[in-house]
Amino acid sequence: MLLELIDEAVASGAPLHKACATVGIAPTTIARWRAQPGSEDGRRGPTTKPSNALSDDERAEVVKIMNEPEYSSMSPSTLVPMLATLGFYFASESTLYRILRALKLLNSRGRARPPSRQRPQEFVAVGPNQVWAWDITFLPTEVRGRFFKLYVVLDVWSRMIVGAVVHEAEDASLAAELIETCCTEQGVTANQLVLHSDNGGAMKGNTMLAKLQQLGVMPSFSRPSVSDDNAFAESVMRTIKYNPAYPERPFADLGEAQTWVATFVDWYNKKHLHSGIQFVTPSERHHGHDIAILAHRHEVYNAARERRPERWTGETRNWEHSSTVVLNPSPARAVREVVAD
After folding, report:
1. Mean of pLDDT over the chain
2. Per the domain annotation, does 268 fall within a domain?
3. Are 213 and 247 members of one domain?
4. 131 plus 212 within the same structural domain
5. Do residue 163 and residue 66 come from a single domain?
6. For a Cys staple, 133 with which of 110, 168, 233, 274, CB 3.0–4.6 Å?
7. Domain count, the chain
8. CA–CA distance from 140 to each of 144, 147, 235 (Å)?
9. How far apart (Å, rounded) are the C-alpha atoms in residues 122 and 200?
10. What pLDDT shows up at residue 193?
11. Does 81 fall in a domain?
């Protein structure tokens, strides 16, 4: 099945190395499989049972003990020491974990449930104020161990910062106030906007969620500890911290921090040529001015090629306007994009 999918992608025009990278297999591995009779997926795992493996009776006894009422809520890391105290040893913790995984019992021990690792929903923006992403970062102060909190809200489609404030604390009420202000300034109406964030307390606080419901804004959240799920917000935070104008010394007070952030936002929105949007400013894209700018650049390049055609071996630089931006694209979309490339 895997080889058929790769063949389909390559037949549609995708480079072999990109198709292989998408499924996590090296091109040399694919070539080795094809050289074998039958040309099948070679990931078969071990073919012989280890000599020191538990016997069927021992395995059944371990499963029975792990499912006893007094032990059913214990993880192997707790159960093994407990049994050792009682004078019993059946297998190592890793073996018990392996048995539980094989029986699909690992995630149902006790009342607690692990956090969801399901990928966040894919959202597609075809214009401004459809999908926003936001985050909070720390700004150092002159007092050791004390930090100001910078709240930043970014329009995913245009990359424009639609809101940025600095406070002394991270709080859901302050975040809700910022989002409401941004929605008012941008003229956002109910059921128009998706707001994506990570799982911080300010993002999922009751005050914040109630405000989003009141505004008709759909919340979206990253998976726990997966920063790539909020890549647009992470990117703008990196731009802030690594900008040449970022102060070399800590901020003296809240007013100084607020002034610097306001200056940065003005530069970022109106002067920064963003690489993710064809090197126009976020403000130009947000307000639709980028279409004329990119068309003019295309004309300039065509004119240059007409004047000196010997300097051009192919097409001119692509200055096409990108009308679609995807937040957290699904695996299926990733495969389609590889095929399209």
Report:
1. 88
2. no
3. yes
4. yes
5. no
6. 233
7. 3
8. 8, 5, 19
9. 20
10. 97
11. yes
One domain, residues 81 and 173: no
The answer as to whether 60 is a domain residue is yes
Question: Is 240 in the same domain as 175?
Answer: yes
Higher-confidence residue: 313 or 212? 212
pLDDT at 339 over 50: no
Q: Are strands 161-167 and 147-155 parallel, antiparallel or unpaired?
A: antiparallel
What pLDDT score was predicted for residue 19? Answer: 82
From 190, 147, 188, select the one nearest 170 (Cα to Cα): 147
- Both tokens of 95, joined, read 């073996």
In the block, tokens 């000196």 appear at 308
Query: What is the pTM assigned to this prediction?
Result: 0.67
Alpha-carbon distance of 227 to 328, in angstroms, equals: 11
Q: 249-285: b or e for each residue (b if 16 or more CB lie within 10 Å)?
A: ebbeeeebbbebbeebbeebbeebebeebbebbbbbb
| Residue 15 belongs to domain spanning | 2-35
C-alpha–C-alpha distance, residues 218 and 191, integer Å = 7
Kindly state the tokens that stand for 339: 């095929």
Instruction: State pLDDT tens for residues 211-253.
Output: 999 999 999 999 887 878 899 999 999 999 999 999 999 999 9
Q: Are residues 129 and 258 in the same domain?
A: yes
| 143 and 30 assigned to the same domain | no
